[in-house]
Amino acid sequence: MRDPSDTRDIGPRVGSPLWFHMAVFTLAGAFVFALSMSRLTGLNGIADHPLFWVLAAMVVLSQIWPIVTPGRSRLEAPKASNTFCLAVLIVWGLPIAVLLRATSLLGVLVAQRKAVHRAAFNAASATLSTAAAWAVLYGLDFRYSPANPWHFGDEGIWAVPKILLAGVAYFAVNFLIITVAIGLHSREGALTAIRRTIGYQAFVNLVLVATAPLAALAIATGSAQFVLLFAFPLAAIYANAAMSVQREHQAHHDELTGLSNRKMLIRKLDDMLAQATVSSTKVGFLLLDLDRGLKEVNDTLGHAVGDRLLRLVAHRLTHSIRPGDMVARLGGDEFAVLLPAVKEASVAREVAARLRAAVAEPIRLEGMSFVIEVSIGIAMYPDDATAGELLMQRADVAMYLAKQRRSGVERYVADLDRNSPARLALFGDLRRALDRGELELHYQPKVYLTDRRVAGMEALVRWQHPERGVIAPDDFIPQVQQSYLMREVTAFVIDGALTQAALWRQSGMTTQVSVNVSGRDLLDSGLADLVAEGLARHRLPPETLLIEIDERVLTSEPAHAVATAEALAEAGVALSLDDFGTGYSSLVRLKRLPVCEVKVDSSFVGRILESPDDEVVVKSIVDLASALGIRSVAEGVESADIAAALLAMGCVAAQGWHFCRPLNAVSATAWLAEHGERDRQARPINGHRPGPRRPAVMPPSGWRL
Ligand code: C2E
Ligand code: MG
Ligand code: MG
User: Fold this and answer.
1) 638 in ligand 1 pocket by Cβ < 6 Å?
2) Which of 438, 475, 477, 577 gets mutated to test ligand 1 (max ligand atoms within 8 A of its CB)?
3) Are 408 and 279 members of one domain?
4) Residue 188 clears pLDDT 90, i.e. is over it
5) How far is the CA of 519 from the centre of ligand 2 (A)?
6) Residue 581 Cα, ligand 1 centroid: separation in angstroms?
């Protein structure tokens, strides 16, 4: 099969360094070939014997099937034909070896429809390298021919070192001629190409060279059967290489869609950036995230059909790009497309528009029609970022913008990105923090104002930074919201909170745990699934969890955020509007959304005693919540006087230092044990039942302060 990225069949520009290189060596090779053929004797005697044809067949076959190993293209793959040609050279001398090597190579390349100039150049290089090996042998008085073939015992103990030296010359000449041409072709530069490939090539070719004396011994027996025996170890090598390639493929590809995975993408991205730097072109990075479609299919038709949908999307994406471009699946409903060597950013925009159109074609599954929308963020190398990781982050910033604006496609704009270098360093640190488990959850109780029963525990994240000490969430969450790391932080928080809730439940302290999610999480259509999976894994009923959403998110991020909020409610998970009063939520929205709690922002609560305005605000929110059947919770209650004033206003519950500061898991457990009556009979509070619109919110709870 032809490698689509292989452009070497296009002839070099006349007069270019590559043209000179190829012309000089093709001519030199042709000259040496002609000279060798003029000395060709004894072919008839050899060709009468089956041994010669078995050898010829093995040379041709091993030329057609190189030994492809993981991470190497077919172009770089070593060929066992080298072993046989060197063996022929040892036993019968140069003319026969050159004849076999050059004609088989030429024949195979032409049959594979490679350009003639390239086939001739490769055959010339093979001829010259064989001649170099012969020259070394000749210089060492190792001279054999069909009339006087080499036999076991000739040259005594010096046979093997002499053959190995010849093998080194054989490899060195071939490697230099070919690699310099590759370096000049890719404009990577000859020296860089040599440095890049010499280690691997020297290793595998010297292994092949080292087996040449054994092949020569087999030929020297004069028996075709001995040479055929070589097919067995070779078959073992091929099978091993094929298995490694398969294993490598599995490690670098997504099982569901067969696309490259994130690991492979990062590797390719680095290669492409290096190439683009040399050739002064740009690289386009497109990050795609499905807006809707997958969730609907998963919910209505099940995950198996959802998987089919993902495969279909993958298929549409791969068929909408050019050869040489790359599509990868990063996980869930997130894909990436890599465009190497683009001239203008406008090309990337065109590709993005094409991809959106391809994905948006209605899909019929199980008799139902679905339309899939996708948001795409574009970042260009080197204009938007000069390194791979940064390029991915910036495409992510652009994708987030495309979702917020509902524009479908956005290019990264530095002005809209609040990621300073210091913030990017923070992302690097946070990545490590997630891997090393430096994030930790603390818990702060919420209590009912009337009787001080425990209303729930809010999980608040803390970052135990090894150098900077404890970092508060306000110092990193707003920045992380701009990056794809937010998803991982939220996944960590949800899992941590559910693990703790399950532990408390096992000890008889059944309480509701709240987690905070950011605006970005609500744009992620996978959040509801993440929550549902977590609950199922910990065998917890949905009412164990309460999701807190900043009120402003719902006013500024409409459609998608509301869709996720509704998906959560459908899963039976209750929602709380955090920092209420700061975002001007309309009454209509509050009524429509599946919200069961509003948390009055501490900026109002803290001043109710001295500011009549703030008192009015808090009282209105409390009344509004009460009218809608929603629980009101005052945040930031720091004194008994404020708590008393809130109670007088009819506020249902409160949270703040006056009751308890956020505590680590151990202290929070001790607090719960102290303030709760263990193993109390669970009883439903407020009469709510879990349901799609307004789920049960109040946990069975019996703890008093
Ligand atoms: P929030 O959800 O409104 O959380 C309440 C914040 O008020 C907490 O700050 C808490 O420690 C603090 N607080 C509680 N009682 C008092 C009080 O009486 N007086 C004062 N002055 N403050 C009080 P914290 O833990 O620093 O969290 C700050 C914000 O960071 C949170 O505000 C929340 O929006 C965000 N956050 C915390 N954890 C997470 C998380 O896991 N994920 C996300 N997305 N955001 C989080
Ligand atoms: Mg909160
Ligand atoms: Mg708050």
Assistant:
1) yes
2) 477
3) yes
4) no
5) 13
6) 16
Q: Is ligand 1 within 6 A of the CB of residue 467? A: no
298 CB less than 6 Å from ligand 1?
no
Q: In total, how many domains does the chain have?
A: 3
Residues with CB under 5 A from ligand 2 (ion): 516, 548, 578
Helix or strand or coil: residue 99? helix
Burial zone of 423 (CB within 10 Å; 0-12 exposed, 13-18 middle, 19+ buried): middle
Instruction: Kindly state whether residues 395 and 532 are assigned to the same domain.
Output: no
User: Do 84 and 132 fall into the same domain?
Assistant: yes
Query: What angle is formed at CA 136 by the lines to CA 164 and CA 30, rounded to 5 degrees?
Result: 115
Average of per-residue pLDDT across 349-377: 87
Please tell me the number of the ligand nearest to residue 444's CA: 1
Indicate if ligand 1 lies below 6 Å from the C-beta of 636: yes
CB of 527 within 6 A of ligand 1: the answer is no
Q: Say if ligand 1 is within 6 A of residue 576 CB.
A: no
- Give domain status of residue 234, yes or no: yes
**Structural domain ending residue among the three candidates 357, 378, 412:** 412
Query: What is the structure's pLDDT at 7?
Result: 47
472 within ligand 1 shell (Cβ under 6 A): yes
Q: Is 439 in the pocket of ligand 1 (CB under 6 A)?
A: no
Q: What is the tens place of the pLDDT at every residue in 404-437?
A: 777 889 999 876 655 555 666 677 788 888 888 9
Query: With a 6 A CB cut-off, is 461 part of the ligand 1 pocket?
Result: yes
- On the CB side of 527, CA atoms within 13 Å amount to 32
Percent of the chain with pLDDT over 70: 90
pLDDT at 644: 96
Which residue's alpha carbon is nearest to atom 25 within ligand 1?
A: 460
In a domain, 701, yes or no: no
Element (H, E) at 455: strand 454-465
Domain with 354 in it: what CATH number? 3.30.70.270
The CATH number for 659's domain is: 3.20.20.450
User: pTM for the whole thing?
Assistant: 0.55
In a domain, 626, yes or no: yes
Whether the per-residue pLDDT at 694 is higher than 80: the answer is no
At which residue do the structure tokens 């609500």 appear? 522
pLDDT digits (tens, 9 = 90+) for 428-487: 788 888 888 999 999 999 999 999 999 999 999 999 988 888 889 988 888 787 677 888
pLDDT value at 107 more than 80: yes
- 398 and 437 together in one domain: no
Which has more pLDDT, 314 or 1? 314
Between the two ends of the chain, the Cα-to-Cα distance in Å is 75
CA distance 633 to 631: 7
598 lines ligand 1 (CB under 6 A): no
Residue pointed to by tokens 């099982």: 255
Q: Are residues 100 and 130 in the same domain?
A: yes
Cα separation, 285 vs 394, in Å, equals: 9
Distance 550 CA to ligand 2 centre (A): 8
Chosen domain end from 412, 444, 475: 412
* Residues 35, 179 within the same domain: yes
Query: Tens digits of per-residue pLDDT, 51-88?
Result: 888 888 888 888 888 887 776 766 677 788 888 899 99
The first and second tokens of residue 250, run together, are: 């599995």
Nearest CA to ligand 1 atom 10: 662
Same structural domain for residues 375 and 511? no
| Shared-domain flag, residues 361 and 236 | no
Any domain includes 461: yes
How distant, in Å, are the alpha carbons of 212, 290, 294, 409, 663 from that of 560? 66, 11, 13, 16, 34
**Residue from 516, 527, 641 whose mutation best tests the ligand 1 pocket (most atoms within 8 A of CB):** 516
| pLDDT score at 548 | 95
DSSP H helical ranges for 256-413: 262-279, 294-301, 303-318, 345-360, 388-405
| Residue of 607 and 571 predicted with greater confidence | 607
Residues 6 or more apart whose CB falls under 8 angstroms from that of 236 comprise none
597 CA distance to ligand 3 middle (Å): 12
Domain membership of residue 146 as a residue range: 19-252
DSSP 416: G
